[in-house]
Design a protein that fits this description.
8 strands; 11 helices; three-stranded antiparallel β-sheet; alpha/beta; five-stranded mixed β-sheet; Conserved hypothetical protein from pyrococcus furiosus pfu- 392566-001, ParB domain; elongated; single chain
């Protein structure tokens, strides 16, 4: 006999009914928890990677900017640095300043890196720092210490022309004031020989290469270039020639070309001579030296000085000026109508010209 399910009516009391108790939070399974945690970790990792990429991009842009400015410095092997392209202003003889630099490097190290051009084959071409590189190589040979096998170097901006490299080297040496008149003259001659900057003669080379200097100094460099063209093969210490002596000898050689033979013969009588000995030989032919005093009390010279002429070119904002100086006259040639210049201004300019000469 089956039992029937009985239904009972439930009477609810009138009034408010208490809300049901809150359900307990649903418990998540281990798989769902793992998926959630993995998603959060992936999002965090993506954020970190994005931040790293942004920082790397910023560093890469900064590196490119500094590289274009030539401000990147690295440590490079001294054996990888070549000195074939630009180093024509330094003598290959023993340089006393290199000896002083070696002593300084041993104590305080290198304060200023050399400057190089990166080559396609992985090597480097020296632009600035011939003495620093020479000192490092000498110390490496003398000591065998690997400390001197590498040298700090900064890199010139890529794409620099040979003309620009020459100017960098010259200006660095001029600022440091460690380049002699003879070295500057040799640089100008090499500039012409290499046909750099379209220069066809020494005047143009001096004006291009030493554009940072004043016209008077460029004129002195031309005089030294002429002096070396007559005597360089016979000089042991051309870098030691003082400015006044070099200019005076250049003028005498222009006036008396045959004098070069006498100077060369005198130099050959003193082989293995020191700087002071060579300068003493040259001074004996210096026409600017005081003449002996005659019995009558007057200064005399063995022969009257012959006078020649000097021709030079100077670049000015108005154009290139050709100047010819000869006994009793100075000629200036410029593509300009000087008849239109006010008479008072012209007189003032001429007076200033002669004041400068005096």
């Amino acid at each position: 006999m089956s039992k029937k399910r009985r239904m009972f009516d439930i009477d609810l009391p009138d009034g408010e009914v208490d809300p049901p108790a809150p359900a307990e939070p649903q418990r998540r399974g281990p798989m769902a928890t793992a998926i959630t945690e993995t998603g959060e970790a992936t999002r965090q990792r993506a954020q970190v990677e994005a931040a790293i990429r942004a920082e790397n991009d910023a560093l890469a842009h900064e590196f490119v900017r500094l590289k274009k400015l030539g401000l990147i410095t690295d440590i490079i092997p001294v054996s990888d640095v070549r000195v074939s392209k630009l180093v024509r202003d330094r003598t290959q003889r023993r340089d006393p300043e290199v000896e002083d630099l070696k002593a300084s490097l041993r104590v305080v190290g290198l304060s200023n890196p050399i400057r190089v051009e990166k080559l396609p084959d992985g090597g480097y071409e020296l632009v600035e720092g011939w003495r620093r590189l020479t000192a490092f190589r000498a110390l490496l040979t003398e000591t065998g210490d690997d400390r001197w096998a590498t040298i700090p170097a900064s890199f010139v901006p890529p794409g620099e022309t040979v003309e620009g490299l020459y100017r960098r080297m010259v200006d660095e040496n001029l600022v440091r004031k460690d380049i002699s008149w003879a070295e500057m003259a040799r640089l100008a001659r090499a500039y012409v020989e290499d046909g750099i900057g379209g220069c066809e003669d020494l005047d143009q080379a001096v004006n291009h290469l030493f554009a940072s200097t004043n016209p008077q100094k460029r004129s002195y460099i031309r005089r030294f270039a002429y002096l070396l063209s007559r005597l360089e093969k016979h000089l042991e210490h051309p870098e030691a020639i003082p400015r006044a002596l070099g200019l005076s000898l250049a003028q005498r050689l222009e006036q008396e070309p045959a004098l070069a033979t006498s100077i060369v013969q005198a130099l050959h009588t003193a082989p293995n001579r020191s700087e002071d000995e060579e300068i003493a030989v040259l001074r004996s032919f210096d026409d600017a030296q005081p003449a002996p005093i005659s019995p009558q009390g007057n200064r005399t010279r063995g022969r009257p000085a012959k006078r020649g002429k000097t021709v030079l070119r100077l670049p000015l904002p108005a154009g290139e000026v050709k100047c010819t100086a000869a006994p009793g006259k100075v000629e200036l040639h410029l593509n300009r109508d000087f008849s239109t210049v006010d008479r008072v201004r012209l007189e003032a300019a001429i007076e200033a010209f002669f004041r400068e000469l005096d």
